[in-house]
Amino acid sequence: MSTQDPAASDVATAGEDLALLEGIRTTRAIRRLRPDPVPEALVRKVCEAGTFAPSGGNRQPWIFVAVTDAERRARVAELYRDGFHAYIARALEAAKSPDYPEAKRRNVYAALHLADHLHEAPVHLFVAGWTRRGAEQAQALFPCIQNVLLACRAVGLGASLTTVHRAHGDEIDRMLGLPDGCPTSALLPIGWPLGRFGRPPRRNVEECLFWERYDAERASP
Ligand SMILES: Cc1cc2nc3c(=O)[nH]c(=O)nc-3n(C[C@H](O)[C@H](O)[C@H](O)COP(=O)(O)O)c2cc1C
Questions:
Q1: How does DSSP assign 6-61, residue by residue?
Q2: This prediction's pTM
Q3: How far is residue 102 from each of residues 106, 194, 201, measured CA to CA in Å?
Q4: Which of 101, 109, 121, 182 could lock 189 by a disulfide, CB 3.0 to 4.6 Å apart?
Q5: Nearest CA to ligand 1 atom 29
Q6: Domains recognised in the chain with CATH numbers
Q7: With a 6 A CB cut-off, is 178 part of the ligand 1 pocket?
Q8: What is the pLDDT of residues 39-68, one digit of tens each?
Q9: Which residue's alpha carbon is nearest to atom 22 within ligand 1?
């Protein structure tokens, strides 16, 4: 364990007392992060939560690469920004309109903030996975990724799920020393949050839940 780590007993108890459903409801994209280092033992703990995810045939295809070196994070951030600006340009333009919904505007600006400050996030956690018969298995990694995000919430770390690094995925995968057939699917920038956790804006479950058939009428209980 490195010297920056807290006592093993602190890590063992971190996040063990948050009720599961409240943790789920208050896990959201935390994109404003402090640059302070994160103990390696906590990174290990949130990845361990990832390893408890379900996977087809219990193949457990995930590989985590945690990047903390400042120069390597700077290069990742540069590549991320390049992909991000190509992807977000239209939304950024639209967000300037006074008619643009406020919640969406906040989301776009938070994503922009992350892109501009990605190099400052103390941990760039990449989640990669073995392909199967040549096909990417990104879907096999997302339950694992969600577990990591929930575990970050539990121990008080901020994190978000990002994928736009894939615009330069080959270069990043090479930089991480990943073998062929094991591409990264996601980059989770992790750090101590600048703001507070809270409930994210989400559709009401009544809008999404149907009984027996989507087109059937049924009053809520
Ligand atoms: C498959 C997937 C890919 C995503 N990629 C990015 C990304 O590259 N950059 C980013 O800032 N957010 C990304 N997001 C995060 C969503 O934009 C985020 O969940 C959404 O903005 C809701 O934020 P909230 O939880 O704070 O409400 C991605 C989410 C998913 C599910």
A1: --HHHHHHTTTTS-HHHHHHT------B--S---HHHHHHHHHHHTTS--GGG---
A2: 0.93
A3: 6, 21, 11
A4: 121
A5: 161
A6: 17-194 (3.40.109.10)
A7: no
A8: 999 999 999 999 999 998 999 999 999 999
A9: 29
